[in-house]
Amino acid sequence: MKIVKIHARELHMKLIAPFETSFGVTQLRRILLVELITDRATGWGELTAAEAPYYNSETTDTAWLVLRNYLAPALVGMEFEDPDELSEKMRFVRGHEMAKATLETAAWDAAAKAKNVSLSTLLGGQRREIISGVSLSIYADTEKLLQKIAQELAAGYQRIKLKIKPGKDVEVVKTVRAHYPDIHLTVDANSAYTLADLPLLKKLDEFNLDYIEQPLQWNEIYQHAQLQKALETDLCLDECVHNLRDVEAAIHLGACRVINIKLGRVSGHSESRRIQAYCQSEGIAVWSGGMLEAGIGRAHNIAMSSQAGFVYPGDVSASARYWTRDIVHPEITATASGTISVPTAPGIGYEIDRATIDEFTVAEQVWEL
Asked: Which residues contact 128 (CB under 8 A, 6 or more apart)?
């Protein structure tokens, strides 16, 4: 396969409701899409970076710069048979995993279409449906949070994840657990605490959580190992895991018992496959985290989550929870039992809604032979 053209577009899409985490509130998403056109098939990828450098150091703007000046020019004209080859080709750029993943995932989509198989099949996926959970914003009013949880449980979702931050943590979790003693419940701190908060974090052991996600600094592994030794609850690492080397270090240090794999954060499907295979061999559970993706990003997450190592419910949920209109057909839906079907059509398995993409596009650039 030869890459003959790369077409990048920035879309502006407004979330149905503001989404608050420990590092801020998001409602307008600047979504960067890449259409990678080869001489045999076309694939699509979606940038998962946020608008500001709060989750990690990447943003929509940094991705534009890296794509424009370095990655896209290097890939146009490249010939490949295995999408793994793109990871090697982009290695000259250090970091910028999310920018790389936008191109790499598009190549996987194109490769699957060229072989006339689903992306799940090409990745070695073994599931025909994935288990879905929901991630809930921080709520100022706990009663409204309880109402939202009731709504999501009624819709069938199998895990509730609460975003927490100092001042919105133990009492909120205590209230939720009192109302829902038997649900799968997790919390995500997005790096909002330090080891000085150990007494507070130990209180979370009382609530039978599946895990506590990324409580300490976004680039810290060793201190998570110290924290895990002091807690009964499993820790899950997110922001500080960028590649298999980080995962190996975290597991051997005892820094976690669960890993959140985000396609963008680990530079795409190739590294994600290596991480989930290694974790499975080490008895470490993994699951797919979300970054407020539109339909193309969600479709890639569904395919990734069909692999054997993904045993916890992920953040992939229905399009309608976030968007009045998504950019794929059919829109992604969940069953009444909280599962999402893994598409069997070639590539990501969803049709691209080009009319909606064109309507939402605010900027674009093309690189071609």
From this structure: 306, 341, 342
